[in-house]
Amino acid sequence: MDPALGGFASQSPIPQTPAIKFFVAGRPRTKNKRKAFVVRKKGKVVGARVVQPEEDKEKQRAFAAVAQDYAPPTPWTCPVRLDLLFVMPIARSWPKKKRDAAVAGTLQHTSTPDTSRLTTFVEDALTGVMYLDDSLVVELHASKVFGHKPGVHVTLTQVEGESSSGR
Question: Tell me, what CATH number does 107's domain have?
Fold first, then answer.
């Protein structure tokens, strides 16, 4: 028992596997909202159909194509840690003082797109390329910052332990 951990047993350090790191240049993207349509037969509602916009599929394929250059020979089937740093563009129309604050990191990116939608886009784009399914992402860290070179810094690390899905 370790008193520093409130009486809990201390864990030995988890051996780290080499991480996969890469950068995808360009304005970070989100998934557009899916569109739902009512399905009718002879005037009666018989169900609904949900469609993902084709533009989303193209953006995800382009992101996955960059990731493919860094991908393991087969997609991982183990638990994964995903670290994402979204570098958002600085508006040229901003006053110099505001642009300087954005570069210095004292101005936080609190406007749209929101971090969760950016993250969902990346998780879905990497499915089948880096890992078998995005449910394998057990640790996630995502941040938005301003910078002169917009894009997404991606780091994937295998996490020790077994997958509960038996994959």
Answer: 3.30.1330.70
